[in-house]
Fold each of these.
Amino acid sequence: MALSLGKDLIGLEELSADQIRLILDTAEPFKEVSERAIKKVPTLRGKTIVNLFFESSTRTRISFEFAEKRLSADTVNVASSGSSVEKGENLVDTARNLESMRIDMVVMRHPSSGAAQFLAKRIRSNVINAGDGTHEHPTQALLDLLTIRDRLGRIEGVKVCICGDILHSRVARSNIWGLVKLGAEVAVCGPRSLMPRGIEGLGVKLFRRIEEAMEWAEVLNVLRLQLERMQAGFIPSLREYNRVFGVTVERLARASRKLLVLHPGPMNRGVEIDSRVADGEQSVILHQVTNGVAVRMAVLYLLAGGNPERAEAAKGQGSSREGAE
Ligand code: CP
């Protein structure tokens, strides 16, 4: 039987290594669509997708919307502010009302862990998790994996250290699942107060000092310090955090390897990452953002029932005609 993703994409925990590779391979031909003068193929023409964003987002929301439009789907954006959620309507009622208008897919970001799974069990439409609480952010991890593979030519055996606020990070969880399944060596590094208890149980090494992590790793994925949570006293001060854990040009220069630096964004410049690193030659942060569109096109295409072997042909459909218009 042909490999598929099933009905929904909730997290990388549920996917096999082959399913993750399928998404990455399917993203490859879609990269080229965004480089065209007319960035559109008719692959999802006639499909209706609702983007339900109950939490703020720049990269994920916009790149899903670009991915949907480049595949010619019809899209509607719903935010909690300005919708009947503000009047107390619950998630399932909101989604069922949308389904009554004959939609095909829901892309959802939600502050509660488990919200995407909860919704997926209750509606017929495909559900894609665009980040749920501290649980998972699967498409972010997929674009991180694609970027590492683009830059290093492989994922298996690559040493990746995820640095910073692991405790609150759905990006860290999805990256750990994805990287471990694809055979990478994975480590985490951060303050004790921002490290989930028992994290080694997920198959990762633990570094307490950023210098040691940098000496070990080939790739650093630097996480945002979730400043909105820092009133709870997780760290003494931002300055202190930067002094002890900040990814700086000086620290990178002392590492014996030339590390690749990723960051999912949004960045706190001068806190977890210095501007000279973020904008420097070892940074692939904007490459990650570019890959986000192709990865999301691949996920939408596969969940809509697209044949992965026809992704190359799908991106070619109508391109010469539309390109000439
Ligand atoms: N990386 C990420 O999820 O960014 P946004 O919150 O801007 O979507």
Note: The pocket of phosphoric acid mono(formamide)ester is lined by residues 57-60, 131, 137, 140, 264-266 (CB under 6 Å).
Amino acid sequence: MENQGISVSAKSSSNIAIVKYWGKHGDQLPNNPSVSFTLNNCFTYTYIRYDKENASGLQFLFEGKESPKFKEKINKYLEEHLDLFHFSADVVNHLTVESSNSFPHSSGIASSASSMSALVLCLLKLEKVLEHDTAPVDLRRASMLSRLASGSAARSVYPVMALWGETSSFKGSSDEFAVPLADIVAPVFKTYHDTILIVSNKEKSVSSRAGHALMDGHPMAEQRYATARYNTSRLIGALKNGNLETFIDIAESEAIQLHELMATSNPAYRLVEPNTLKITEEIGKFRYKKKVPVCFTLDAGPNVHLLYPDEFKNQVAAFVEEKLKYYCIENQYIDDFVKIF
Ligand code: PMV
């Protein structure tokens, strides 16, 4: 039989948002548009084997070990969205999924965007093999299916930068799927580095899912969504014309706003740590003194993402080594940069 023992694999990157997605409705639809860089070195690699002889239900291994939590997540996703794939529940019963991350599990880097998009890309490749279809995977469909698994995963299927969420500033943008921005960004943004300063490697005390939910009824919700829409349209302009000043302004204020929203939620919570704030202060001083266009952003956690064009990599590397790494847990940081292909 032709379908015995089919193997497919896919790699998908993590992404870091400049305009943040925070608050959602319906089936993983965003309350405002968001824009991110796709990273090169932080990725998930997923391998799926379809074995017709082995019907022991979906098996899942993370870095070689069974992970009941993630297996349940995949099963739930496939149960809820199987009608969107071109294979049956019987195929799912014959699958073994193996997944691993390029970044350490204990680095505090969220892996849901890379892991869920890698899983979806793999499932779409399997679908193609089963259908004898040799065309490449449709990335728009991959983005839509990834969104249903984890919102920010919608942006991870494209290299360089992606926009997710409808905005009048970009034709073809949608709440259902992300669109690539590679063709419109000025060359400087394709040279960007992201040095991830690991302030803490502990698991977050409040999940993103709970954080999104706290935006419902948040006293600043409407103001926040309006600001994010405005920042998206300003950012698209800055990306087109290479305006680093506007980019820096938006990146830092979006990061601060995300954490202010957490601090003013009910119940209120805080994910930043004292060293997060010390690092952001040092970055501001360094930028002002040395006239280097370096800035920070934060994800939903205490780690600081240091963003800068390649032209300044030596100066920034010295700054990280001499100053910033001492605020990191075990002096740990990850050098990453924008994924180009
Ligand atoms: O995709 P989720 O549900 O894990 O939410 C991600 C939210 C942020 O990472 C904080 C912002 C973003 O746009 O990636």
Note: The longest strand covers residues 34-50.
Amino acid sequence: MIWNKTAECMSDKKREDLQLNRLRDTVKTAYEKTPYYKKRSAKQKIKYSDIKQLSDISKLPFTSKADLREGYPFNMFAVPMNEIVEVHTSSGTTGTPVVAGYTRRDIDTWSEVMARALTMAGATNEDIIQNCYGYGLFTGGLGVHYGVHRIGATIVPISAGQTKRQLQIMQDFGTTIITCTPSYALYLAEAAYEAGINMRKIKLKSGCFGAEMWTESIRNEIEKRLKITALNIYGLTEIIGPGVAHECEAKNGLHISEDHFYPEIISPDTLEPLPDGEKGELVLTTLTREGMPMIRFRTKDITALHRGKCACGRTTVRMERITGRSDDMLKIRGVIVFPSQIEKALLEMKGIEPHYQIIVTRPHHLDEIEVQVEATKEIFSDEIRHLEAVRDKIENHIEKAIGLRVKVTLVEPKSLPRSEGKAIRVIDKRAI
Ligand code: DLL
């Protein structure tokens, strides 16, 4: 099933014409209406009328997460506040968050792209969709919610957590599709196994998993344990939220809703565009966004694009699953964390040396962070009780800084590996 054949199966020519028109409109609106872009366009020579063909987009400067933070809270909006009907923020809990504003039409677009995504997972108005993405400022919960409403399926807006209840409801309500992070899907599978639930007896048929990196082997595990088809869903707050791209049953890349989001791949080193098929950083431009047009947003996500008709009949470009980032951003249980935030918090504390390592693990399918930090000689040779008090203080301080509880281990001075080049600060032991 295809939700919107006109949009998803368009000829290249038709799509490119549409994209060019929309790109020109977007640049014009952004440069005339958004305080942030207005300021920037005053400094640069390029005008929207210089965009004569799609490839002219490369003449425009990039937008970064830092730019969005600078525009906090509403300087990226292109419409007056009385036209903004909803706001969301990125899942980072500290620092200046990225704020996204939506007009009524943006919510409509979001519902549309999410309806396309859910249809790829086999959703029709007969389905019962259990949405375990968090509701609130995070875009996961409400993004999926709007898509389910658009299709006319039944939404179970259970949000994240409460695993036992999730399993109970899944059985009692006859949930057919589940939406959550891939790590939570594995956690649910484990809990279902422990509770003696026979997955063959429940109605679940597929799931849309995303918001964090995962691999084919994780897909195989989820499919085997939950007895479902597991599909990949991609998106980000800055662009709209979930629904920028989604896999179809061919599992051969994620179809980008190209009539709304224009993708490019650039080299993170030279910042030059790369041809289709080559891996690099994904850069996205919104083509229809009213509330917050985004021009050449550097996602920092690493992928490659592939064109040509898919076995499912869609003609939209497909992106490979994300295999990494061009920065050091970590997503821990869905929350964005930069190692530099932990470093900053650590260095504000007494009794420790500036040598640390962040170890990320995924015991029982949920992310955990351990921060190993060298204690000073004085502290280390002090009583255990004192050492524990210092450790607790640091744990509390980091929690305040990043919004997540981490385990701190104070280690002997000079015991952590030293590096002659780049220090290895993060050891990611998760199987991703
Ligand atoms: O994670 C939106 C979302 C919600 C996507 C639900 C899918 C499902 P943010 O919190 O702003 O938004 O985080 C965006 O998460 O730049 C990627 O690094 C990562 N990410 C999102 N989806 C995937 C995925 C939501 N399928 C950031 N594979 C992005 C790998 C993903 N990474």
Note: The chain has two domains: 1-326, 330-428.
